[in-house]
Amino acid sequence: MDYHVRDLALAPEGRKKIEWVAREMPVVSAIGEEWKKTRPLEGLKVAACLHVTSETAVLMLALKKGGAQIRLCASNPLSTQDEVAASLVSDFEIPVFAIRGEDRDTYYRHIEEVVSFSPQITMDDGADLVSYLHKEGGPLLEGVWGGTEETTTGVIRLRSLARSGKLAYPIIAVNDADTKHLFDNRYGTGQSTIEGILRATHVLLAGKRFVVVGYGWCGRGIAMRARGMGAQVAVVEVDPIRALEAFMDGNLVMSMDEAAEWGEVLVTATGNVSVIRREHFLKMRDGAILSNAGHFNVEIDVEALEKLCVNKRKIRGMIDEYTLPDGKRIFLLGEGRLVNLSCAEGHPPEVMDLSFANQALSVLYLKKNASTLPKDVFKVPEEIDRQVALMKLGHLGVKVETMTERQKQYLSSWEEGT
């Protein structure tokens, strides 16, 4: 079996991590156990480019129980848990190509390895795998039936590809499922981003001036959790409706120029490029802490910071200290990459249970329906979204109300009024 991981001797530690998070992922685990009996994915080849974490491992095991042949690589150079990668290879015979800290060339070589076995379905987080296939073209691309995309940034890229008329196969935007973005993006990113900042810095957030750049579902979650820790929160937004929402939620709202001067801890969560730039670095206070919660390391202009500084040193774990010409110091966490994965362990398994249940069921949906779908980006089918929510509620011991026939009739009619 082909694979490229750091050290197979790490497998025992990785297996224990997988067992630990599987306890908190009952929906994906239940899907896997059902599929073990029915084998609905028998022989299906799936190429996955995801964060190689213990939560992802639970999804991979469910797909394998369903009969799928899988290859997995990392969707971010700093998100791989080497012990989990080793366990997937050693204990479960799933080919993994991922090493924490891998350079750019290795990262893309791993994507090449993952697609080299002619997959029929792709699973992506950020759209690097899909983008690679479309740039290469040829028989590998032609053999793909459909794919799934996990995150906001990837969906943005894929919708752009679809608008250009160049998308070669249908993609299900798992990120757009209600049981994904309302929970994973808000509660998952909110908690794990704060955890990453605290693990890296060990600072007290209570009383800190905390800036969130971007008020999508991820930004909402980060702001909510920072306020819960006692921080003073300001939001930077380009969308007037989101800015108004942020204000009504109890946050300060200001421009990036104002926030650069005001903030002590700053987090980007926009999915866009260079939202914190050279002119902002120059305005920052001594000791400002910068981090990024967006998928790619482009939101903070690290290249401009490198050129601007007169000295750079590794000051603590995943913290780089940049000294500016006037003596001010700026601290960058996790090289500007996803702070929740570069400095912590990513989202809690409870929310990934929802996201990865959508992934698993969307793969099965594509196996059955990809040939009839146009080459476009789609939401997760509503029946899957609702099924995931009901399964999660069932495992939580929560019951939902059922409408009476009279209530159904009332909502489906137009005759009754005042």
Please render the helix and strand layout as text:
Elements lengths: L10 H12 L3 H13 L6 E6 L3 H12 L3 E6 L7 H9 L5 E2 L6 H12 L5 E4 L3 H9 L1 H5 L3 E4 L2 H12 L7 E3 L4 H24 L7 E5 L3 H12 L3 E5 L3 H9 L3 E2 L2 H7 L2 E4 L9 H6 L4 E5 L9 H7 L2 E6 L2 E5 L5 E5 L5 H4 L6 H21 L7 E3 L2 H15 L8 H7 L7
Helix pairs in contact: 1-3, 1-4, 2-3, 2-16, 3-16, 5-6, 9-10, 9-16, 16-17
Indicate the structural class. Answer: alpha/beta
- Total number of β-strand segments? 15
Widest β-sheet, arrangement of strands: 9-8-7-10-11-14-13-12
The CATH fourth-level homologous superfamily of the largest domain: Adenosylhomocysteinase-like
CATH topology annotation of the largest domain: Rossmann fold
Q: Look at the structure and give the mean pLDDT.
A: 96
Overall 3D shape: globular
So what's the CATH class of the largest domain? Alpha Beta
Please tell me the total number of domains: 2
Distance between the termini: 70 Å
Could you describe the 3D structure shown?
It catalyses: S-adenosyl-L-homocysteine + H2O = L-homocysteine + adenosine. Keywords: Cytoplasm, Hydrolase, NAD, One-carbon metabolism. It is an enzyme of class 3 (hydrolase). Belongs to the adenosylhomocysteinase family. By secondary structure, the protein is α/β, with parallel strands linked by helices. It folds into two domains: 223 residues, 3-Layer(aba) Sandwich (Rossmann fold), CATH 3.40.50.1480; 156 residues, Rossmann fold (3-Layer(aba) Sandwich). Helices cover 47% and strands 16% of the residues. The strands form two sheets. Strands 9-8-7-10-11-14-13-12 form an eight-stranded mixed beta sheet, with helices on both faces. A seven-stranded parallel beta sheet has the order 3-2-1-4-5-6-15, sandwiched between helices. The termini are far apart. The mean pLDDT is 96.
